[in-house]
């Protein structure tokens, strides 16, 4: 296990004037479960490759338990990696696949078998240990890849790079839940790269949200949802994401471009740049009284309905209460507890 630290870490690729990974300082605690979350091209795989040693950063340092490992190759960092597409030896049995990293490190047959049977039980592979891997499905092969990382008791960290990409959708929930339970039973540092917010929020204790090579927020799933530090996090987390209304803020009041006013729970000094009021659909309800809106459509999401409206000409998503018919003259009722103010995309604190 390892405590992983980054000191002014950054990455530029040859010929590019821009950072693929912008300078950062960060620490991932020993035995933590972390997710790197963001859209394609945001820098999350670059960061994972730097941690693993597949890529040497152009700036800064990487530390494992206080030791500088920036120049160390992958094999000397003692990390296990699980990729999008499972790497499995088809001619071997499940047992032989799982035991492979142990036998390579000189473990006895008895020690390897004990460890293999324990990990196979955790992954639900116990009944197929003596089957050839070539006859297994993609989900079972990915479990073997997971198992090869878990079977090593001395591993510093396990790195997952979009590990559920090839898994059937109805099996993803099972594997996500199993990974979470595995982390509770096998306390090793785990880093999980994904573009899927559901995977990140259900697996990780702390999520690292990335955009355009920058870490924009690190926090618990609850913190990312309740108090996004950046407008990108508000957009990216949640389904639908946070609403953002262009406005001017004066003290405890937000004024929309069309003249409608919204009382705020906090007072704000004059704010520079682009100012927006952020509020999630969970804190906005379609109602018969409140801010008048124009209804565009209603989306039935199964457990709830979302009303798509325009407020002062700006698109907005609100919750339609269960059993409520759409009012003839729809309005919005906003819960002040969910209102946040952003200046140039960054959360503005304000005063109570």
UniProtKB/TrEMBL annotation:
Record protein name field: ABC transporter ATP-binding protein
Protein family according to the UniProt entry: Belongs to the ABC transporter superfamily.
Pfam family, one: ABC_tran
Domain of life of the source: Bacteria
GO cellular component, one term: ATP-binding cassette (ABC) transporter complex, substrate-binding subunit-containing
Domain ABC transporter as annotated: residue spans: 4-237
Keywords: ATP-binding, Cell membrane, Membrane, Nucleotide-binding, Transport
GO MF terms held by the record: ABC-type ferric iron transporter activity; ATP binding; ATP hydrolysis activity
Protein species of origin: Dankookia rubra
